């Protein structure tokens, strides 16, 4: 009689190759996400059914952190009047379009409106269309 035990085979999965693949996928998505569109400032603006289109305007964005942008260039609040003045210099029939995050305090929007009034320029607020 053959009473010897057979050696049991153990199955194991090698995950070292999976770690390498996950690392390369992570790098790819990190690089791809930074190259997607870095110049766009995404805003959630209030909704309105008003349909005014402004052909020539200087855009002032205020994001959710309270950072001001003049034509997609970050500007400190104390330098905002001079930045607006240089953008408006030599242009006629130009208005300032304020694109503020929907939870932005009205105080920040009114500051930009007062600066526009001092520069004798019409100031409008951007909104999203209602569905």
Description:
- The chain has helices spanning 16-35, 80-88, 106-118, and strands at 47-48, 57-62, 68-70, 73-75, 95-100, 122-125, 128-129.
- It is built from 3 helices and 7 strands, in the order αββββαβαββ.
- A hairpin with a 2-residue loop joins strand 3 and strand 4 (73-75).
- The longest helix has 20 residues, at 16-35.
- The chain has 131 residues and is α/β, with parallel strands linked by helices.
Labels describing this entry:
single chain; 131 residues; alpha/beta; five-stranded mixed sheet; 32% helix
Offer a quick outline of the entry:
The chain contains 3 helices and 7 strands; from the N terminus they run αββββαβαββ. The protein has helices at residues 16-35, 80-88, 106-118; strands spanning 47-48, 57-62, 68-70, 73-75, 95-100, 122-125, 128-129.
How big is the Rg? 28 Å
Helix content: 25-40%
Number of strands: 7
Detail the poorly predicted runs.
none
Tell me the fraction of residues in β-strands, as a range: 15-25%
Number of H- or I-type helical stretches: 3
Termini gap: 84 Å
Shape assignment? rod-shaped
Sequence of secondary-structure elements: HEEEEHEHEE
Main beta-sheet annotation: 5 strands, mixed
* Mean model confidence by pLDDT: 79
Which structural class do the helices and strands define?
Answer: alpha/beta
Order of strands across the main sheet: 4-3-2-5-6
How does the SSE layout of this entry go?
Blueprint: H1 16-35, E1 47-48, E2 57-62, E3 68-70, E4 73-75, H2 80-88, E5 95-100, H3 106-118, E6 122-125, E7 128-129
Parallel strand pairs: 1-7, 2-5, 5-6
Antiparallel strand pairs: 2-3, 3-4
């Amino acid at each position: 009689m053959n009473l010897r035990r057979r050696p049991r085979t153990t199955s194991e999965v090698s995950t070292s190759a999976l770690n390498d693949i996950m690392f390369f996928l992570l790098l790819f998505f990190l690089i791809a996400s930074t190259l997607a569109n870095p110049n766009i400032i995404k805003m959630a603006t209030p909704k309105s059914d008003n349909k005014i289109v402004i052909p020539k305007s200087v855009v002032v964005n205020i994001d959710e952190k309270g950072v001001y942008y003049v034509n997609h260039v970050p500007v400190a609040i104390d330098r905002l009047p001079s930045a607006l003045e240089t953008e408006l210099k030599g242009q006629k029939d130009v208005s300032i379009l304020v694109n503020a995050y929907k939870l932005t305090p009205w105080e920040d929007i009114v500051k930009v409106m007062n600066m526009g009034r001092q520069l004798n320029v019409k100031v409008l607020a951007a909104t999203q269309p209602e569905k």
